[in-house]
Design a protein that fits this description.
about 60 residues; single chain; two-stranded antiparallel sheet; mainly beta; about 10% helix
Length: about 60
């Protein structure tokens, strides 16, 4: 069943292995960014959330 447009970007956090957590990213967004499987990204904590950036992007 397809999600409604208002729920399209709502994701669940799931456990992977014993100690790690995972979240899926919308395929439309990853395609728009040109991201591929196994690509390295940088995760930065900010007040109230996280920023995920391409490893090569220095900004």
């Amino acid at each position: 069943m397809r999600r409604k447009n208002t729920e399209e970007n709502i994701r669940k956090i799931t456990r992977v292995g014993g100690t790690s957590l995972s979240i899926t990213l919308p395929i439309e967004e990853t395609r728009a960014l040109g991201w591929k499987e196994k690509q390295r990204v940088v995760v930065k904590r900010i007040k109230g959330g996280l920023i995920i950036r391409d490893f090569r992007n220095k900004k």
